[in-house]
Automatic annotation (TrEMBL):
Species assigned in the record: Streptococcus minor
UniProt superkingdom: Bacteria
Keywords: Glycosyltransferase, Metal-binding, Transferase
Key word Cell division present: no
Protein name: Glycosyltransferase family 8 protein
Transmembrane regions listed in the UniProt entry: none
InterPro entries assigned: Glyco_trans_8, Glycosyltrans_8_dom-fam, Nucleotide-diphossugar_trans
GO molecular function ontology, one term from the record: metal ion binding
Pfam families per UniProt: Glyco_transf_8
Length: 275
């Protein structure tokens, strides 16, 4: 299986936690780990050692300084968030499918079935966090001018990528043109671009299984009439996603799943030989 990440030096420890959680759930699976980065990370040797100690194969992919120099960015959304949109330009041509993961997730269960799903000519598989109903979909379609697409607004934190189809359909010039025309309306820039251009080419997957947003735990429980509680999540959810500004590695985080994250992070440190 091929895994794709995009991080900077500030997210190295979280990246390790994701990988460790994956290996705990799929200890006999072979993984190729591709890590896209603007410049070679300062902890490159440390990362390589850790990935190889897990039994994975590490591939640093250095994009360079100017790939998205003119794209809209903020402190929260640097230009590196666009890398997943053009990953196919930088990955080896022999890689035909890859799973992109944000670094703020935990893997709680095996994802072989998800990874090997039949995608046909669809470009991506992703989940929609449509907790506010059709109104939010309407607002996003209005903002991104894609009313002709019969689709929801997809979260790109977990993104299965059909690279064979993407190489045929996703073009750099289309992405840069969309950014230029809509730069005043982009809120989550890379996510907006993907939804604005390719939402009708996305296979929808259930978020409670493959992209459970920890911020919405109470909403999930209400939606399921109490079924999707902590025990259910541990037994069924594949990727638990700590999206948003509040993060479980911060001392002031009080979310429902903070203890679970801190426990896995502690085991990761022990595995690495840190106290």
């Amino acid at each position: 299986m091929n895994l794709l990440f995009v991080i900077d030096d500030a997210y190295v420890e979280q990246f390790k936690v994701v990988l460790y959680s994956i290996v705990q759930q799929m200890p006999n699976q072979a993984f190729q780990v591709y890590l896209m980065q603007k410049v070679l990370l300062k902890k490159d040797a440390e990362i390589r050692y850790f990935v190889e100690k897990l039994g994975m194969v590490y591939h640093p992919v250095v994009v360079g300084e100017g790939a998205f120099a003119t794209a809209p960015t903020t402190d929260r959304y640097p230009d590196t968030i666009y890398y997943r949109l053009l990953a196919h330009e930088y990955l080896p041509a022999t890689v035909d499918k890859i799973l992109y993961l944000d670094a703020d997730i935990l893997c709680l269960n095996d994802f072989k079935k998800f990874y090997h799903m039949e995608m046909g000519q669809k470009l991506y598989a992703a989940a929609s966090h449509n907790e506010d109903g059709r109104l939010l979909d309407y607002v996003n379609k209005l903002r991104l001018k894609n009313f002709e697409m019969d689709s929801s607004y997809f979260n790109t934190g977990i993104l299965l990528m059909n690279l064979e189809a993407i190489r045929l359909q996703v073009k750099r010039e289309d992405i840069l043109d969309f950014i230029e025309k809509n730069r005043n309306w982009l809120i989550l820039p890379d996510q907006d671009v993907l939804n604005g251009l390719y939402a009708d080419q996305v296979i929808s997957i259930p978020d409670e299984i493959y992209n459970y947003d920890a911020r919405y735990s109470l909403i999930y429980q209400a939606k399921s009439q109490g079924k999707w509680n902590l025990d259910w999540v541990i037994d069924h959810t594949v990727f638990l996603h700590f999206a948003g500004r509040d993060k479980p590695w911060k001392t002031n985080y009080r979310g429902r799943y903070s203890g679970l994250y801190k426990f896995i992070a502690k085991l990761t440190c022990k595995f690495e030989g840190k106290s």
